[in-house]
Design a protein that fits this description.
497 residues; alpha+beta; Protein Transport Mog1p, Chain A; Membrane-bound Lytic Murein Transglycosylase D, Chain A; 3 domains; 7-stranded antiparallel beta sheet; 4-stranded antiparallel beta sheet; 40% helix; globular
């Protein structure tokens, strides 16, 4: 969570529920529809930042703010830039050049601006297991450029908007208008899905011609799908296995099947020897050894159920069973099982306004005025209250900490006294960090280790500095399915302190 001031976009309890539940998922960019295989490119050049137009510069700065700035690692930057140059040289537009920025975010994402600014998160680089997998992602983005998808998409939207307006002008039948709108949305979604599959095909072809393994796309999409499954999700909000026909991206299984068929056009599956594949993997792992993994402490970080923010000087611990996710705008949490969630963000409240008054000032509806009262949390003034929605009940806390106010919003589908007590206990852990805690706040990172005789997945996974599901996370991080055995002498990634 950055140091900016954030407000909840919607006043309604439904809006808050979205902030607590849907936003939890929106922050998980490893979802198949959010993985960064985004339709966003046009014909690029290589401008210096000073040469960007005001609009492009604003977007560039917004991206840096959203993704916690630049991850400054010259060795990694050089590796990615060289990979991009190989791809460009093998593409149908070798005259184009891209300026690559590695973003300091654990989110798995990659995208570009029309000017040729290409962005790749360190989270995506960490998930990939060789250069061919990373090349598949970047080649996909180039595929959008070569196929002029951005321009075609913009024209399609204009055409659909014109058609919708004509329908609205010709008929007063709301059902007919709604049907026309639904059909136009479906056509647009299908158009975009076709673009994504076409970009996959173009990207695989570019990667193959550049000397990369075309099956890198298949491997990365499989890792992406398994990584997505590790994200917490409240019941009934999202089924990752169910295709969304209005999604801008095809379901990952469909993309894997398609990518496999395309890759076979360039190389037989067993053409590369295990030794060749292992050598390519080892070279890539050597490049990413030591890369920061997970949150950067400068923007706050998660350790199990605990969140610490050394720069803002506070910490708190979530209730038992919660899994936390630190996003640019808020700390979000979901209880395993999906029947409870939380959100912590920061806002500015004038010093002359009491916190009890702020709770009832209208930023959230349906709050019970009788439930609002002042509290003190570890010496800091605060206020609390409850609100009720159709499916979720809410316990709200606001705490004045320095010049800002921190808002805890807890949501529960089964708001019992015990649940309310766990929320109160969690807020009671909110406190100022000690100097020793601030000094000890260091990021996790990847460590590349050699598999020794007798090592098993379970044994190595037990060394991972992750809060839960160590074996599953180890397999996903290393691109291993549930049946793959480790080979002595091979190298694997571990998440360590």
């Amino acid at each position: 969570m950055g140091g900016g001031r954030v407000t909840i976009a919607s006043r309604t309890l439904a809006g808050v529920c979205i902030a607590l539940v849907a936003l939890l998922l929106a922050g998980c960019s490893t979802e198949p529809s959010d993985t960064g295989f985004m339709t966003s490119l046009q014909t690029p050049s290589q401008p210096a930042e000073a040469e960007m137009s005001p609009a492009v510069l604003r977007e560039h700065q917004h991206i840096l703010a959203t993704y916690d700035g630049v991850y400054d690692e010259p060795r990694l930057q050089a590796m990615v830039q060289q990979l991009v140059e190989r791809l460009v040289a093998a593409s149908s537009r070798p005259d184009l050049h891209y300026k690559v920025t590695i973003l300091n975010s654990e989110t798995v994402n990659a995208f570009a601006l029309p000017t040729g600014q290409l962005y790749v998160t360190r989270g995506l680089i960490a998930l990939a297991n060789d250069e061919s997998e990373l090349a598949a992602v970047i080649g996909h983005e180039m595929g959008h450029v070569i196929a002029h998808h951005a321009e075609l998409r913009e024209q399609e939207i204009r055409d659909e908007q014109l058609g919708d307006q004509v329908m609205a002008d010709l008929t007063n039948d709301p059902e007919a208008s709604a049907l026309a709108l639904a059909k136009s949305k479906l056509r647009l979604a299908t158009f975009s899905q076709q673009q994504e599959l076409q970009a996959d095909a173009i990207g695989i072809g570019i990667a193959a011609r550049a000397g990369f393994d075309p099956y890198g796309s298949v491997r990365f999409l499989a890792s992406l799908e398994r990584n997505s499954a590790l994200k917490p999700r409240p019941n009934g909000v999202l089924n990752p296995a169910a295709p969304d026909f209005l999604s801008s991206h095809p379901a990952t299984p469909e993309r894997i099947t398609h990518a496999l068929a395309v890759a076979r056009q360039y190389k037989a599956p067993a053409e590369d020897t295990p030794q060749q594949l292992a050598a390519a993997r080892d070279a890539y792992l050597a490049d990413i050894d030591g890369i920061v993994f997970g949150d950067d402490p400068s923007e706050g970080f998660v350790r199990g159920r605990r969140f610490l923010h050394p720069r803002l000087d506070f910490t708190f611990t979530a209730p038992e069973g919660f899994v936390l996710d630190n996003t640019a705008k808020a700390v979000l949490g979901v209880k395993r099982g999906g029947d409870a969630a939380l959100r912590l963000d920061v806002v500015h409240v004038p010093a002359e306004q009491t916190l009890a008054t702020y709770l009832t000032s209208g930023w959230i509806e349906n709050i019970d005025p009788a439930s609002v009262h002042d509290v003190t949390i570890n010496g800091f003034p605060g206020a609390t209250g409850t609100a009720k929605g159709d499916d979720w009940d809410f316990r709200l806390y606001v705490i004045r900490f320095g010049s800002d106010v921190y808002r805890f919003i807890f949501a529960s589908k089964n708001f019992t006294p015990d649940a309310d007590r766990t929320f109160r206990d969690s807020v009671g852990t909110f406190r100022r960090m000690t100097p020793a805690e601030i000094k000890a706040a260091k990021p996790l990172h990847l460590k590349i280790v050699k598999v020794e005789p007798g090592d098993t997945v379970e044994k190595l996974a037990s060394r991972m500095a992750v809060p839960d599901r160590q074996v599953e996370r180890f397999r996903v991080l290393n691109g291993l399915d549930s049946t793959t055995k480790l080979k002595p002498g091979s190298e694997v990634k571990l998440v360590v302190e």
